[in-house]
Amino acid sequence: MEKFILKVNEVCIWIFRLSCLNILWIVFTLLGLGIFGLFPATVAVFAVTRKWVMKEEPKLFITFWDTYKKEFLKVNLLGYLLLFFGLFLYLDLHFFRSIENSFVDYLPFIYIPIVILYLFTVLYIFPVYVHFELKFIHIIKNAFLFAISSPIISILMVIGISLVYLILYMVPIFIIFFSVSLVSFVIMWCANLAFLRYHLAQQKMGNNETFN
């Protein structure tokens, strides 16, 4: 009975943590007028969930706020660069579909793998951002490398995200409390598996250096 109570208490603590984090994301996204607050608030969420995944006990608001203000400019540049590339892919698709050419019939064989790689890279962007100390361009490069070198983990991410959003679809009120924080935790937990594998490979090679 005591173990059951402790387990229930632990679940309640996690529900409280995730809901507070999600509300912080909403508040600080709005404080940044949406377009400027979205990416800094998101990277701040990942900074917190990374510490949870690493079995640390961060001060939630302090960790969130410090990351938000420190990374504000850099992560906005990165986020809108990725958004621009995604829009470019979308417009390319519509452009090629409007052309009457036999080449268009083969377009899905080229376009779909590119889109999948793009989406998988985006999934790793924030985990790589908060886990490694990297320069701007190397964040994108190494997120891409993790995406192509860890396909099973990438698929696990997609499955996890799908399950979360299935729950949110069934219980819409949960969107306010878990839509970003829980998804971030799932992504960060999966990404950490890839990071652990990378660090183990580095140790076996006798190389303690991180990415450049």
Outline of the structure:
With 212 residues, this protein is mainly alpha-helical. The chain has helices at 2-31, 38-53, 60-70, 72-97, 107-131, 136-149, 151-170, 175-178, 181-204. The longest helix has 30 residues, at 2-31.
Task: Output mean pLDDT.
Answer: 89
Helical segment tally? 9
The dominant shape is globular
Q: How many DSSP E strands? A: 0
Alpha-carbon distance between the two ends: 51 Å
Low-confidence stretches: none
β-strand percent reads: under 5%
Order of helices and strands: HHHHHHHHH
Helix content: over 70%
Q: Give Rg in angstroms.
A: 19 Å
Structure, explained:
Helices cover 80% and strands 0% of the residues. It is an all-alpha fold and 212 residues long. The longest helix has 30 residues, at 2-31. It is globular. The mean pLDDT is 89.
List the helices and strands and how they pair.
Blueprint: H1 2-31, H2 38-53, H3 60-70, H4 72-97, H5 107-131, H6 136-149, H7 151-170, H8 175-178, H9 181-204
Helix pairs in contact: 1-2, 1-3, 2-3, 2-4, 2-5, 2-9, 4-5, 5-6, 5-9, 7-9
